[in-house]
Specification:
Elements: E1 5-8, E2 15-20, E3 24-29, E4 36-40, E5 45-47, E6 52-53, E7 60-61, H1 62-73, H2 87-97, H3 108-123, H4 132-139
Antiparallel strand pairs: 1-2, 1-5, 2-3, 3-4, 6-7
Length: about 150
Amino acid sequence: MKETILAIAGKPGLYKLVSRGKNNLIVETLDNTHRRMPAFATDRITSLGDIAMYSETDDVPLTKILDNMKNLEKGKKASIDYKKASADELHEYFTKVLPDWDQDRVQNSHIKKLIQWYNILIEAGITDFVDPEEEAEEETPSTDDSQPA
């Protein structure tokens, strides 16, 4: 999911990578139209796997945040309407998703875009946000070689 789902600056929604051309990428919208179009090198194209959000401790990968949202919403669309929600409602909701988010650097527009993208992915049937290898790494406790005698 991380490399094949793309965001293109200046274009709404999310796109799925279909194929690579000589000087462009062929992408397909993740909405109901499934319209295909070329994306060129001049377009600012970003894979969702390359996006992270600020937290108080470290940057958190977008895939982990989307997985947290899926767990919070039990795999359904977001319970908050990002278009009508107030700033306080957005902050309260996002605190449930990522408790230690950096409130100085994460803007309301970032939270709205995250909720919008989450809904698009759920509608498209894409729910595997974190790769199984990453989940295994996170669940495996780190071993400490320095044990007391």
